[in-house]
Amino acid sequence: MTVAQNTQAAMVSGFVESLQEPRTPYISPKRFSKALGVQVTNLADLTGVHRNTLRNPASERLQSRMREMIKAITAAATLTGDISKAIYWYRNEPIAEYDHKTAAELVAEGHFEAVLSYLRDLENSARG
Question: CA–CA separation, 70 vs 75, rounded Å?
């Protein structure tokens, strides 16, 4: 690994670790919503789960959707070199190829693979 790759890996690892529910193997909805800059109740919309599901961090559906979101954000972070920029992109940048929806909207609608495919295309274009 190059120095840049090590730095990116450390950045991603630190971000993911910061989201852990204390003393559990789960992603914390509260910590994740704070990282995204949204209210916990809005996280329900972004994950496509009922707001009451957020009270049960062990919910497999909730954990699965949050993992998808994190994968998309960390994939974007490898392109931008910055978690904050990746989160901004994820939540705000419309993707023309997908009816100008944001990555967050696409993932909430169940199109996680489309977002990853788009990011792979961007990465491949950047490499030439």
Answer: 8
The pair of structure tokens assigned to 37 is: 């800059």
pTM: 0.88
Greatest Cα pair distance, the chain, in angstroms, is: 46
Residue 23's φ and ψ, nearest 5 degrees, are 60, 25
d(CA 45, CA 108): 7
Q: How far apart are CA 20 and CA 95, in angstroms?
A: 30
Which residues have CB under 8 Å from 78's CB, separation 6+?
8, 12, 123
Least confident of 38-52, 64-78, 106-120: 38-52
Residues 6+ apart with CB under 8 A from 65: 47, 48, 49, 107
